[in-house]
Design a protein that fits this description.
Elements (H helix, E strand, L loop, with lengths): L1 H15 L2 H7 L4 H15 L4 E4 L2 E4 L1 H27 L7 E5 L7 H12 L5 E5 L2 H9 L5 E5 L7 E9 L1 E6 L19 E5 L4 H13 L4 E6 L2 H11 L3 E4 L6 E4 L2 E5 L8 E8 L6 H19 L2
Parallel strand pairs: 3-4, 3-5, 8-9
Antiparallel strand pairs: 1-2, 5-13, 6-13, 7-10, 7-12, 11-12
Length: 302
């Protein structure tokens, strides 16, 4: 598959913005890399890159060609996966972008169960906010994205979804822990550690508090759920997360989760999606079916 090697070269130059840097990463000399790109441009009949004093930038034709190249590389990986599947290998890798809330329990548990049956499969799991996750999906950097409240692009195909309530995380000895269900107004008087604005839970909170003219007593914010839980535990603050990452009840570390009434904060979907029109590699497609079944069972309450 020599043509795939050239496609990989073009994609790497586009990713790094530098012929020299791409050549170093692919163990080529810059002159050899540049010559191959020039030969391809001559064959196509138009420049793919605009040469600048410091690096290169894709032309419009180059952007089209890179999309084509990524699609071809992904199809080749799928074919290789299918061949290996026939030989009983199923190595993967299965590449997934997911929200932080999925990392600790939901996704890790299903990866563990899958690898018991298919021990040779390798997973590449990227924890990202929903915007970066969808960008990775569109760039063929991942096979699947499992994210909360994503923007729906025409290029996305939703294969499963699960409504999610917002949950308040508190210490077990906090006054709010005594209630089974919370109103958002219950939370305004307590010091809060909030997710930062790249995270969907914070975006929902900002929308709701602005509309209802409420003000949370924010003393800290972070893009790390682990940090937020540490602040809840060490500083006796409250924080917020979707329920798949903070189910109602004991969360460990002396922390508990309490759902917010949906009259105050409506549910928003956790979405499993892939790129529309893309046929997934065998291992990724098999794991996607497991995720779809799990989300369907959770939706049904089983």
């Amino acid at each position: 598959m020599r043509h795939l090697r050239l496609l990989t070269h073009v994609v790497e130059v586009a990713r790094t913005g530098s012929i020299r840097r791409a050549a170093e990463l692919l163990n080529l000399t810059p002159s050899a890399m540049n010559r191959r790109i020039q030969d391809l441009e001559a064959e196509i009949g138009t420049p793919l890159f605009e040469r600048r004093p410091r690096g290169v930038k894709l032309t419009t034709a180059g952007e089209m060609f890179v999309r084509y190249a990524r699609s071809q590389i992904a199809d080749a990986e799928r074919m290789r996966s299918q061949v290996e599947d026939l030989r009983g290998l199923r190595r993967g890798p299965i590449q997934i972008a997911c929200s932080q809330a999925l990392a600790l329990d939901f996704l890790a548990l299903r990866v563990a169960a899958f690898q018991k049956k298919h021990p040779k499969v390798v997973f590449d799991l990227k924890v990202m906010d929903h915007e970066r996750a969808l960008a990775a999906l569109a760039a063929y950097d991942v096979d699947l994205a499992l994210v909360h409240r994503p923007a729906m692009w025409p290029s996305l195909r939703v294969i499963a979804s699960l409504p999610q309530r917002l949950v308040v995380i508190t210490r077990s000895d906090h006054p709010l822990a005594a209630k089974k269900m919370l109103r958002l107004s219950d939370c305004v008087d307590y010091p809060a550690a909030l997710p930062d604005r790249t995270l969907s839970g914070r975006q929902i909170l900002d929308e709701v508090t602005t509309r209802r003219d409420l003000r949370l007593n924010m003393l800290a914010e972070s893009n790390s759920f682990e940090m937020l839980r540490g602040l809840v535990f060490r500083c006796d603050m409250i924080s917020f997360q979707i329920e798949i990452g903070a189910p109602t009840g004991n969360l460990g570390m002396g922390l508990v989760g309490r759902p917010i009434d949906t009259r105050d904060v409506p549910t928003a979907d956790l979405v499993l999606c892939q790129l529309r029109g893309r046929t997934l590699p065998v291992a990724a497609a098999t794991f996607a079916e497991i995720l779809m079944k799990s989300l369907s069972e959770m939706r049904a309450g089983t």
